[in-house]
Design brief:
mainly alpha, 6 helices, globular
């Protein structure tokens, strides 16, 4: 019997915190793209790169909104599947930063996201 995926569930709150964090990162890319690019691990050196930073921000906002919509439907297993599928994003981000800059703090942040998402996704699927 699946457990409830609602306000009483710690997994619901973890999922919400993840979605909110992703939304804030996306908004940062739109509002302050230079700061977001540095946080990402690939500082912007030309004005021509700013649209790409903003596109990454829109990607993060869209993924966040999809996850929030699934949470509103209280579909914990579907949220888990989506989070596991979304791992391709920080995996690609970590690989891109690593190939450009080597092993940096930002690569470790992306790797930490992969681990967090894998654990959260699997826990949500198991519930």
């Amino acid at each position: 019997m699946p457990r409830d995926f609602d306000l009483k569930s710690p997994l619901y709150w973890l999922c919400g915190a993840f979605a909110l964090g992703l939304l804030l990162i996306g908004l940062l890319a739109l509002i302050a793209p230079h700061n977001a690019a540095a946080l990402f691990g690939m500082p912007v050196t030309t004005i021509d790169a700013l649209p790409w930073v903003r596109l990454a921000g829109i990607r993060d906002i869209a993924l966040s909104l999809m996850l929030l919509a699934i949470m509103a439907m209280k579909a914990g297993r579907i949220a888990g599947i989506l989070i596991l599928l979304m791992i391709v994003v920080p995996l690609t981000d970590a690989t891109t930063v690593f190939t450009q800059s080597g092993l940096t703090y930002q690569v470790l942040l992306h790797a930490g996201s992969i681990i967090f998402m894998a654990i959260l996704g699997l826990l949500l699927i198991r519930q």
